[in-house]
Predict the 3D structure of the following.
Amino acid sequence: MTTTDHHIEFPPSAAGSGNAATMSFQERQKVTAQADPARVDLLATAVLTAVHDIVRRHEVSYAEYDALKAWMIQVGEDGEWPLFLDVWVEHAVEEVANAAREGSKGSIEGPYYVPGAPSLGAEGALPMREDEQGTPLLFHGLVRNVGGDPLPGATVDIWHADNDGYYAQFAPGIPEWNLRGVFITGPDGSFSIRTIQPAPYQIPTDGSCGALIRAAGWHAWRPAHLHLKVSAPGHLPVTTQLYFAGGEHVNSDIAQATKPELILSPVAVDSGAEVRYDFVLDPQ
Ligand code: MBD
Ligand code: FE
C-alpha cells in the first residue's frame, strides 16, 4: 500500500490525517541496526524514573493514572502518535541533532513529509489547483556552502499546507502532490519557487491531541510555515522550516519549532509577495 491509497474520509478528521501520518511513517521507517542494549537500558530507565518522580512529586491519583491510560490508547486508535511526538518532543531531538551545525538552522520535520514529489528544475511553480487560494509567493535564493560558494545541483524539497491549513495526502480532496515539489539549483546555485503563502496550521481538534490541548487550556496552533529539506552531494542535508514575520502564532508555536533565523519578511509585489532566503550547508 502506498500513501496515495490511504482512504481519508470527508470532512477532514483527526483520525483521517492521523492514520495517514502513521502509515506514511511506517512505510518509510527502516530500522537497520540492532539497538545497543546499554543505550536502551539507559534511556528506558531514565524515562521511567522521570515518570515515577512526577507521580510521587505531584501525588498522581488512580483516576489520573487511568485517564492517562485511556488517553494513550486513544492516541493509538486515532493514529496520532506521529502528531503527538512531532509537536511535543521532536524540537528537543532536532536541537541535539543540529547543535554543531554552522550553516542554516534546522527545524523539525513534522508528520507530513512525503518523498517523491515532482521534480521541477531550478525554477517553477509548485503543483497547485487552478483556483488555489492564498497570496502568491515568489520564494527564491541560493544554496551555498559555509565558505559562501554557491552549490549547483543542490536539492530543495519543499512542502507546505494550503490556505486552509491542510496538507496534500493528509486531508481529503486535495490533488496528490499539491504544494509539494523538488527543485534542483542551477549552475549559479539558485532556485526560484512560485507558490502561495500557507495558512497557520491547527492541530486537529477532534482527536486525542486536540483533547489534551483542550483539557490543558492550551491553544492548538502552529504559525504558517514552509517545510524544506535541502541537500547537496558532500554536504549535510538540513531539514528546516521557514515562517513569516508578524504572522499569527509566530511567537507561540505549539511545536516550539520557530527560530529567529528562520523568519522570512516577504515584500509586497504586483503579483503578491516575494522573499529571498539563502540556505547554507555544512560539509559532510
Ligand atoms: C505540522 O504541519 C507540523 O509542521 C508539525 C511539526 C506538526 C503538526 C503539523
Ligand atoms: Fe507543517
Observations:
- Residues 1-5 have pLDDT under 50 and may be disordered.
- The chain has six helices and 13 strands.
